[in-house]
Amino acid sequence: QVQLVESGGGSAQAGGSLRLSCTASGDTISIYCMAWFRQAPGKEREGVALINTGRGSTYVVDSVEGRFTISQDNAKNRVYLQMNSLKPEDTAMYYCAARRTGCNRRIDEYNYWGQGTQVTVSS
By the 8 A CB rule, do 19 and 81 touch? Predict the structure, then answer.
């Protein structure tokens, strides 16, 4: 089993920055891919950034390209989401997720989820 705990959410003005952290514990050696998803009120949960924990390769969706960066610190079993140039439409609950095989945005293929951290961006 793997446990995921997010931190770093909060409020920011449009154009500002926040950094989210996700700390994994438990059977972390089994993790192949980690991701950040977000869910705004009334909308479906969507994957915004992925990282292959072995290769370090990353992917972000077009809507956050150039603004959000996903990275990892393997020594700390931690994944980060640096969010710059925030927009009001980035307001959502952000979730960290992990999976044992593959690396894509399919929600149903993630094995582990954190509780989420709220990000609110005001104009």
Answer: yes
